[in-house]
Amino acid sequence: MVQLASYTHVPVSACAHGMTSSTSMADLLQRVAESGDAEAFLKLFQSYAPRVKSYMIRQGADANTAEELAQETLMTVWRKAALYSGEKGSATTWIFTIARNLRIDRLRRETPWQELPDGHDEEASADPSPEELLSQKQRSARVKSALAELPADQHEVVLLSYIEGLSHSEIAERLQLPLGTVKSRMRLAYQKVREAVEDLR
Amino acid sequence: MPIIHHPDDATLMSFAAGSLGEALSAVIASHIDLCPRCAAEVRQMEHVGAALFDGLKPTGMSSLTVASLLRHDVSVKAERTETEVAGGIVPGPLTRFVGADLDQIPWKRLGIGVWHYPLPLSPGVKGDLRLLKVAPGQAMPEHGHGGAELTLLLRGSYRDEVGTFRRGDVADLDEDVEHRPVASLDEGCICLIASEEKARFRGLMARLVQPLTGF
Ligand SMILES: [Zn+2]
User: Fold this and answer.
1) Which of A53, B35, B52, B66 has the most beta carbons within 10 angstroms of its beta carbon?
2) Domain check: are A5 and A68 in the same one?
3) Contacting residues of A for B55, CB less than 8 Å apart
4) Do residue B28 and residue A18 have CB atoms under 8 angstroms apart?
5) ipTM above threshold 0.95
6) Same structural domain for residues A115 and A151?
């Protein structure tokens, strides 16, 4: 933490949105994990905190709470970076799961039962090979394009579930649909994602 | 015996999204502790969440500095709980409530041939989570079905219209499905049962239970 002193007055601002490069983010995360690299952390912070803030707002937090939770998400990244092993999951997935669990804990005041994917229970190496990084990058691109190609009605329920944090029955109520229809749209959406990444698994 | 009955993909997605209620999430967490197939699906579903998250339009942070951020000592929630060795009787995520041994659970009698052990949920959380032990040949007590319900078999087996459920199997039924599982004749069963709404045991069971537990 001492080495952060030189960054005391660096303002943190939002950067351009979307398409975070998973490879370079994984690299930054690795630098934080290995040497507590504050410069790498600053870049991660600038890249992710504004998006975590948006996520928390969409989940129902007011702006101040969202900002606090974004900070705390990134603090957790700083503290737990050593646990992250660059596994098959991208840095973005790891950070998403941290934000998700924090939301369950703070916004819903429930106990998160979801574990953070730390890579220890998978056959991935701590130091991902270029091939592993490539397939992470491919998978992330394919998941994104599969989502982009979903029919609007399927995309809508997926977004309500992941980003607005609604349960199936809440989605059914919001959209005035039978519960079974909500569930089948979720399943259909996931099938398309699964097909898109089948050969990478 | 391989696991045959898995949760619905839609239920797993809701879990990965963090949108499944606490009680139902406890069942899914316990299932994926026993089921590598569903653990891998949830991981994949988390990538879906990451892709949607990555596509969000950023909201500017106020003029904070990283250093002030790091000086601010935010206490981090507990690390992942220690998981019992594979093959342990109680799934890892549940051990913090009941230890590792199903035989050490201080069961409370719920009715003839039925015992339960309610598990705590966070204050104010809607829903119900409990372990249920049913004697051989005994019908499972009926819950009031209001909202989603999940059952994970932990020991023994039961049969219903859908089939036979054994350790690791999950019954993830639509709420309008009427079913009446019966515990196996040789060993009965122990299961983890969660519902989105508060459980209401019906009929005779309700009359037996309500004065005792205040359902
Ligand atoms: Zn499964």
Assistant:
1) A53
2) yes
3) 18, 144
4) no
5) no
6) no
